[in-house]
Design goal:
By secondary structure, the chain is an alpha+beta fold. The protein is built from 4 helices and 4 strands. Its EC number is 3.2.1.17.
C-alpha cells in the first residue's frame, strides 16, 4: 500500500519521524508541503492578505498587497508562528 495514502504523510515527513527528528523540524516539513512558503503577499481562501506560511502580521504590522520578504525573513516569521 502507498505509504502516503495510508498515513497522509509524505516520505520526507515519515523519514524525519523515523530518525527521531525534533518536532519543530517535522512540523516545518509538513507545513511547507501543505501550506507552501510564499515570499510575496497573497490572499488566502478567505481573501485575507497573508505571507510565508499564512502569517497575517509581520513585525506587528498587517500584511499588505505587494509585500515581499526574503526566505530568511519568512523562516523567522514561520518560527514565530510555529512556536
Amino acid at each position: 500500500m502507498n505509504t502516503k495514502i495510508r498515513y497522509g504523510l509524505s516520505a520526507a515527513v515519515l523519514a524525519l519521524i523515523a530518525v527521531g527528528a525534533p518536532a519543530p523540524d517535522i512540523l516545518d516539513q509538513f507545513l511547507d508541503e501543505k501550506e507552501g512558503n510564499h515570499t510575496t503577499a497573497y490572499r488566502d481562501g478567505s481573501g485575507i492578505w497573508t505571507i510565508c506560511r499564512g502569517a497575517t502580521m509581520v513585525d506587528g504590522k498587517p500584511v499588505i498587497p505587494g509585500m515581499k520578504l526574503s526566505k530568511e525573513k519568512c523562516d523567522q516569521v514561520n518560527a514565530i508562528e510555529r512556536d
